[in-house]
């Protein structure tokens, strides 16, 4: 019998609703992989009459915060947004030593440090991966992977809605039309002014500065300009200069302390930020290593954000005394790619076409590069290339193989 963990969810909009759907639909895979079952015991909503994406037991739906808190679930997930009642729910949950998982960047930017202290005092746990970057796992990278690595600076596109609007406008859509589409697709905040005037991105960069430098997010003084009041002219001017407009958030460690800023920046179309389009977020972390760490992905929307919440819910569950999960079978990757194979003279070149054909690999080009034969294949799954490579090796060859993604749009 898998261990059952009770979950209470505050907020059942685009993100909360999607989390419920994931919990319901992934019950078996969660149990197989993680050895736990989640039982949603209580859902706090504003209006109990609305239809929900998944059916809930009538008793599970509550509209007042006290009844919601009374459920005392093992994990409380908050997807309401705004400071209250989210803050009260967070404090009550952490103070009784339970786990609080949130997607709420405004709450973490204002009360994150205080809530973290509360969590430590009560041996509770606070997680907020979904608060920054939607589906991009940037919180975990800073909090865990780079836990003690000095960070020089962080730059990023952190607001999916404004990026979606800017890039739709580059395609000729009006600002109003693009904003309407962003709202319909569930990217924008309840108050979309927070997306457009840079407050949403400023909250997120303050959270990242907290994780990178330990500076309380409330004392991060971010210079802030959004894409308002005239995004149409801003984008037209960027185009006239041969560039693309993006809303960039940055923070850095200087000799004076931590600086932060959110402002529109014009980038070359081919630069990494110029190429960040639609609802994508992109974060680049400079650790002074010559090459920065870059992360990108869907920065907003129900699916990616709920998936980040779910990951926090599952991760915390794994920290409790564990029960082994059922191993999940692995499957081979059948995706076809073009491959580049470099072959030394260990195998006579005239034998190669037959070896390829026997492995089911079709050659697109074969060129004599002096001491090597350079082959490019048609699209084929790795399994066949693997077979071909092993045959070449058994005949004394030393092939070097690379996957080709030259058509890749990124
Ligand atoms: N409104 C936010 C955005 C949602 O567009 O980035 C994700 O935090």
Task: Identify low-pLDDT runs.
Answer: 320-324
Question: How would you write the strand order of the largest sheet?
Answer: 3-2-1-4-5-6
Main β sheet profile: 6 strands, parallel
Task: Give the N-to-C terminal Cα separation.
Answer: 46 Å
* SSE pattern: EHHEEHEHEHEHEHHHHEHEEEEHEHEEHE
Bound molecules: L-homoserine
Question: Given the helix and strand composition, which structural class is it?
Answer: alpha/beta
What does this structure look like?
- With 410 residues, the chain is an alpha/beta fold.
- Helices cover 37% and strands 23% of the residues.
- The chain is built from 14 helices and 16 strands.
- It has helices at residues 14-25, 27-34, 65-70, 86-95, 105-121, 138-145, 160-170, 175-184, 193-196, 199-213, 231-240, 302-319, 352-359, 382-394, and strands spanning 3-10, 36-44, 61-62, 75-78, 99-102, 125-127, 153-157, 222-224, 244-254, 257-267, 280-286, 293-298, 338-343, 363-368, 373-377, 400-404.
- The strands form 3 sheets. The protein has a 6-stranded parallel β-sheet with strand order 3-2-1-4-5-6, sandwiched between helices.
- α5 links the parallel β5 and β6.
- α4 runs parallel beside α5 (105-121), α7 crosses α8 and α13 (352-359) crosses α14 (382-394).
- The radius of gyration is 25 Å and the shape is globular.
- The two termini are 46 Å apart.
- Bound molecules: L-homoserine.
- L-homoserine binds next to α7.
Task: Set out the fold topology.
Layout: E1 3-10, H1 14-25, H2 27-34, E2 36-44, E3 61-62, H3 65-70, E4 75-78, H4 86-95, E5 99-102, H5 105-121, E6 125-127, H6 138-145, E7 153-157, H7 160-170, H8 175-184, H9 193-196, H10 199-213, E8 222-224, H11 231-240, E9 244-254, E10 257-267, E11 280-286, E12 293-298, H12 302-319, E13 338-343, H13 352-359, E14 363-368, E15 373-377, H14 382-394, E16 400-404
Parallel strand pairs: 1-2, 1-4, 2-3, 4-5, 5-6, 8-10
Antiparallel strand pairs: 7-9, 7-11, 9-10, 11-12, 13-15, 13-16, 14-15
Helix pairs in contact: 1-12, 4-5, 5-10, 7-8, 13-14
The structure holds L-homoserine.
